[in-house]
Amino acid sequence: MSYNDARPVKITIMSLPAHLPVVRAAVEKACKIVGFQDETAGSIVLSVDEALTNIIKHAYKGADDREIEVELGILGDPPEVLKVRIRDYGVYVDPSQIKSRDLKDVRPGGLGVHIMTECMDRVQFSPAEGGGTLLTLTKRLPAKQETVQ
């Protein structure tokens, strides 16, 4: 079976911070399976965790009874990209209105979107059908080592 034959892994969690470790573990395992080094895998896991935290805090205003859907998949044949889709059912916010705080302002919070854009190759927010937000994060898979002449 090639990656192209595999269907994405889908996880639905409630908006409880206690459920985030399950998603982090699944993302980390997926990263290892497709060959990401530890540092890159950690960055991808951090990006997903930041996205989920932002959904709980901002889209759901801390409510712990709302669904969040996470989908992990591989695109391309041969495999080229890890794609993580995260869907919430909160109010869609135009990404141009999301402002990260100044990096010189050292304190917790306010850097989730900045972290995602730094760690991932592509970060795309779009309104989800039926309401909410669909966030798509992509990262190119590590290239096979080739000898350069």
CATH domain class name: Alpha Beta
**Number of spatially distinct domains:** 1
N- to C-terminal distance:
33 Å
Q: Note the total helix count.
A: 3
Q: Name the CATH superfamily classification.
A: Histidine kinase-like ATPase, C-terminal domain
**Helix/sheet category:** alpha+beta
How do the helices and strands follow one another from N- to C-terminus?
Answer: EHHEEHEE
C-alpha-based Rg, rounded: 16 Å
Strand order of the largest sheet: 1-2-3-5-4
Q: Sketch the major β-sheet.
A: 5 strands, antiparallel
Share of residues in helices: 25-40%
| Weakly predicted, low-confidence segments | 145-149
| Apparent shape | globular
Total number of beta strands: 5
CATH topology: Heat Shock Protein 90
Beta percentage is 15-25%
* Overall pLDDT metric: 85
Task: Report the CATH architecture.
Answer: 2-Layer Sandwich
Describe this protein's structure.
There is one protein chain. The chain is an alpha+beta fold and 149 residues long. The chain is 30% helix and 25% strand. The chain has a five-stranded antiparallel sheet, with helices on one face. It is globular. The termini are far apart.
Please summarize what this structure is.
Helices cover 30% and strands 25% of the residues. The protein has helices spanning 20-33, 38-59, 112-119, and strands spanning 9-14, 67-75, 81-88, 122-127, 133-140.
